[in-house]
Design goal:
392 residues; alpha/beta; Rossmann fold; 2 domains; seven-stranded mixed β-sheet; 13 helices; 16% strand; elongated
Length: 392
């Protein structure tokens, strides 16, 4: 009997202990829940100042996927512009932005380009890329872009003479330096002919136009450098032909000069007119070299040579040097018709344009970028470093 009573008492004590333990756990759990609720409420009320600032900044900065850029080129008629487009598309895809790349049918269609620029502004892009055919013709549209706070990035020839602050930066070849490189390579091939000549000799320069900064600078870079090299070797030189090039070159007019640099520019950007200009120069007996300052001029040189057969690297042939690549010019370099040519880096230029547009649209400070150039010949045009910059 005593044992039964003792058992009952022990069981009662155990139940009481367990009940007390459960009660303690419930109270602790309740305290924990209340504390958590209090902490959460405190966190909600306490938004860090840095986080708030970051959120505000994110609201002001459009996501890359929402960014759109308009790019107005000088044309689509040359493979060069297609290569620029390729680079722009590559970089746009990488950054997650969209672009609309346009250009007139020919580089004489100034009015068409102005209309394209106006349409680009009306599209309200985050930024605009522009290679102006005529800065003067684009001035009203540029002013509209400025008043709409749309940054403009120049490329290729850029936007020379634009109002101060209108163009945030330029992505372009240093065309004057590129023309000078062409002159150095040309002079290496003709310096002995000049030194040993009985009378005066002639060097032709074909310019597509006398308005585009890129074309003019390539011509002037060539003229100034080759004149400098000729004079350094004790010979005299003068420049004839197109007034723009004659006036803007550093060469002083010299009667009876040992070397005549003749600059030919067609009345309009027309392949047949440039071909005729080249034929005229090639038919002069004292011509020893011809330089074409862009793809248009280089291809005109090839066309002129089809019947005249004057170009080549032999002692009695005319040295031909071109600028840009493209299938026709590359073929002329490869088969020895031309001594060589200067190529830009159009794919890299396209990439740099979009990079600058993206940075400018995000309010970053941007600076001009030299996209570079290279001299290519039949011997090196297959090299990886050169080949990547050649376009058909």
């Amino acid at each position: 009997m005593k044992k039964k009573v003792l058992s009952v008492l022990l069981c009662t004590a155990m139940v009481a202990t367990m009940a007390a333990g459960c009660g303690s756990d419930a109270k602790d759990t309740a305290k924990t829940d209340d504390t958590a609720k209090t902490d959460d409420a405190a966190k909600e009320d306490e938004a860090p100042a840095d986080d708030a600032a970051d959120d505000a900044a994110k609201e002001d900065e459009a996501p890359a996927g929402d960014m759109h850029f308009e790019i107005v080129s000088k044309g689509f008629q040359h493979a060069y512009w297609q290569a620029v487009l390729k680079g722009a598309e590559n970089k746009a895809s990488e950054l997650g932005v969209t672009i609309n790349f346009v250009g007139p049918n020919t580089e004489s269609d100034v009015a068409d380009q102005v209309q394209m620029l106006t349409s680009a502004i009306n599209a309200k892009p985050n930024a605009i890329g522009l290679a102006a055919l005529s800065t003067d013709a684009c001035l009203d549209a540029i002013a509209t872009a400025q008043s709409s706070n749309i940054p403009i990035i120049g490329f290729d020839s850029g936007v020379p003479g634009a109002p101060e602050g209108a163009i945030a930066a330029n992505a372009a070849t240093d065309n004057y330096a590129a023309g000078a490189l062409a002159a150095e390579k040309t002079y290496e091939a003709i310096k002995d002919r000049i030194a040993n000549a009985d009378g005066s000799v002639r060097i032709g320069v074909l310019g597509q136009d006398a308005t585009s900064e890129s074309i003019v600078n390539r011509g002037l870079g060539f003229i100034d450098k080759i004149a400098e090299l000729i004079q350094a070797d004790g010979k005299t030189v003068t420049v004839e032909g197109n007034d723009k090039y004659v006036t803007d070159s550093k060469v002083e007019k010299t009667d009876g000069a040992d070397v005549v640099i003749e600059v030919a520019v067609p009345a309009s950007v027309d392949a047949s007119l440039s071909k005729t200009d080249c034929e005229t120069i090639l038919n002069k007996e004292d011509t020893i070299a011809v330089y074409g300052s862009n793809q248009h001029s280089g291809e005109a040189m090839v066309s002129a040579n089809e019947t005249l057969q004057k170009f080549g690297t032999g002692e009695d042939q005319v040295i031909g040097v071109a600028f840009d690549s493209g299938k026709v010019i590359m073929g002329a370099v490869e088969n020895g018709t031309f001594l060589g040519a200067i190529t830009q880096a159009p794919v890299a230029m396209g990439e740099k344009i979009v990079e600058l547009l993206y940075a400018a649209a995000n309010g970053e400070t941007v600076e001009d970028v030299d996209t570079g150039c290279q001299w290519y010949t039949a011997e090196n045009m297959k090299d990886e470093e050169i080949a990547q910059n050649l376009y058909e």
